[in-house]
Amino acid sequence: MTTAALTPAALHRCLADETRLTLILLLGTESELCVCELTEALHAPQPRISRHLAHLRRAGLLHGRRQGAWIYYRLNPALPDWIHPILEASRDAAPAAFVAARQRLIDAGTASRRQAACHAESTSALFSSTSGDIA
Question: Which residue intervals define the domain HTH arsR-type in the entry (predicted)?
């Protein structure tokens, strides 16, 4: 789906799921995030995060880029203007899942530090609150 086909109803269907809403809000606060960063921030298994990211990408809300084995996502820069106030209002309402996930990203340090840990396959050590949760 292109952004031209993105209707208010389609946007709200995407945002009606708490995981997708949290993903969109996190990506609105960072320039881009790796799937492993999102997995750790949301305390969710990688297949679940990837499934939701694919849904958002198909809806036209996200762009992804592959760098080696990793995929980085960001908000689609061509989103229609009417979407931004909706995302801002959602972020201002600060759903608990978003607040917790955002805090885990902040606690993990800079994007380059988080990504270095991802690439070294040691994110469980980086995200101390999730140590032992990764299978």
Answer: 1-94
Q: How far apart are CA 135 and CA 127, in angstroms?
A: 14
Q: What is the spatial distance between Cα 41 and Cα 95, in angstroms, rounded to a whole number?
A: 14
pLDDT of residue 109: 79
Q: What is the pLDDT of residues 75-108, one digit of tens each?
A: 999 999 999 999 999 999 988 999 999 999 998 8
How would DSSP label each residue in 60-96? Answer: TSEEEEEETTEEEEEE-TT--TTHHHHHHHHHHH--H
Q: Per the structure block, which two tokens stand in for 79?
A: 């989103």
Query: What is the C-alpha to C-alpha distance for residues 38 and 57, in angstroms, rounded to an integer?
Result: 15
The domain ranges of the chain are: 12-110
Q: Which numeric CATH code is attached to 12-110? A: 1.10.10.10
Q: Which amino acid is at 129?
A: S
